[in-house]
Automatic annotation (TrEMBL):
Source species: Bdellovibrio bacteriovorus str. Tiberius
Name of the protein in question: Putative glutamine transport system permease protein GlnP
Transmembrane segments: 25-48, 69-95, 115-134, 219-237
Function summary: Part of the binding-protein-dependent transport system for glutamine; probably responsible for the translocation of the substrate across the membrane.
Top-level taxon: Bacteria
Pfam families: BPD_transp_1
Gene: glnP
CC terms in the record's Gene Ontology section: ATP-binding cassette (ABC) transporter complex
Amino acid sequence: MFSWFRTDIIIEYWPLFMQGLVTTLQLTLIGIFFGTVLGLFLGLGKIARIERGPWRWPVQLFVRLPSQIYIGFFRGTPLFVQILLIHFALVPLLIHPEDGLLISGDMALYLKREYGALISGALALSLNSAAYIAEIFRAGIQSIDRGQFEAARSLGLGYFHTMKSVIIPQAFRRMLPPLGNEAITLLKDSSLVSAIGLAELAYAARTAAGAYARYWEPYLFISLIYLIITLGMSFVVHRLEKRYQST
């Protein structure tokens, strides 16, 4: 029945597929971690507001407005374009053997040669996911009744202590489903970084398909891998939801 499916192609390129799987998981984990950390600050920045006093306009101009611009840019432009922009423009500006703004010299040469595509891919996915996660945090925080915030402040808690101990723990339960969806989306979007030559799953499939001019085997195989991982992530998110709902 499946005689048309050439398993020898999968077996021959098995090491490349496994390397691609490891790279895909690395990109996803890095994107989720840094996207969540940055997204939290961006989400808080977008809802930062001081009604009156000398800090009203500085907060508006230097906290809220930059957060809105950042979120708008990364949500309003294609991820594929962002990957190319970061790989060919931003990273060479920051890491360059001669005049890198962050790293230069032999270290920059080594990083670009060995990890250039990985750094660009991880940075692009992290920055992009941060914009979407920021909106998840914003919506989750704003869904909590304002009276709880005011009650915590009336008890003498500061702004950050109120957020950390009262608001965010409650909002996190409501954030779990969209955060899980964002993690799954990030996993699938990681295939776009194959455009800059990073050997992840899509890159491995493209290499095998190009060698044999056969497309069913490699692309069905990586589709199965993506499906297994996304189902696993959905199961974990569902279990976490049930756990938090029961507490």
